[in-house]
Design a protein that fits this description.
By secondary structure, the chain is α/β, with parallel strands linked by helices. It is built from nine helices and eight strands. It has one domain: Alpha-Beta Complex (Spore Coat Polysaccharide Biosynthesis Protein SpsA, Chain A), CATH 3.90.550. Helix content is 38%, strand content 20%. Residues 6-106 form the Glycosyltransferase 2-like domain. InterPro entries: Glyco_trans_2-like, Nucleotide-diphossugar_trans.
Length: 221
């Protein structure tokens, strides 16, 4: 079983983040790894930027839905290890070796501990701290997700009926089957959703969405 990576990044108008992320990834991956960008309909220069990198594969999604975009990436991945990553995050430089080590030790699914890039408030520090502990702060896409391709399909892929929180849904459906391992290295995560909104609002919305999983499925319109 090979240890080659398919890094899958869903985007919508993420040109500025990709300018930083793509060179970082290309400097820290193996020559047999691949980077897959799935675009939900960007109106910025995302596609033009990606064309500059011969090792980055570009796919277009007719719907701007992260669940659909992530599944498109997985369906087109050629490697054994899938690594789902948000465009506004930066994993640690040794992410590849850390993930391989976790998989070799029997961990079938997991992510990294978060470090919010502007965590200058105690409330954001709380989010960062508890992302490294098992509990309600786990399973979000900001932590990224590693999983072998065979396990991803065994776990039912991302549920494309979900227009939000598809990451938590996949985590909740599969943590009992695969477990969830938190690598104790920081993934740098953008604080923009906390800056644009409020800490309480973001976490309240997350909590309500998680509760709704028991009753209803947020559908794509």
């Amino acid at each position: 079983m090979n240890n080659n990576f398919s890094i899958i990044i869903p985007v919508i108008n993420e040109e500025l983040n990709l300018i930083k992320l793509l060179p970082f990834l290309l400097n820290n991956i193996d020559s047999r790894d691949e980077i897959i960008i799935v675009d939900g309909g960007s109106s910025d220069n995302t596609q033009t930027l990606i064309k500059k990198y011969s090792k980055v594969r570009y796919y277009h999604s007719d719907k701007c839905s992260r669940a659909i975009q992530l599944n498109i990436g997985a369906n087109n991945a050629i490697n054994n290890i899938l690594y789902f990553l948000h465009a506004d995050t930066l994993p640690p430089e040794n992410f590849r070796n850390k993930i391989i080590d976790a998989l070799n030790h029997g961990h079938r699914m997991g992510g990294f501990k978060m470090n919010l890039d502007q965590a200058n408030s105690k409330l954001l520090v709380i989010n960062s701290y508890f992302s490294g502990k098992k509990g309600v702060f786990n399973g979000g896409g900001d932590q990224s997700l590693f999983i072998r391709k065979s396990d991803f399909y065994e776990g039912g892929k991302y549920d494309e009926r979900f227009c939000i929180m598809e990451d938590f849904n996949f985590y909740l459906r599969n943590k009992g089957r695969f477990g969830y391992h938190i690598i104790q290295e920081d993934i740098l995560v953008s604080s923009r959703k906390y800056i644009n909104n409020s800490w309480l609002k973001v976490n309240f919305i997350n909590a309500i969405a998680l509760l709704r999983f028991s009753w209803d499925t947020p559908r794509i319109k």
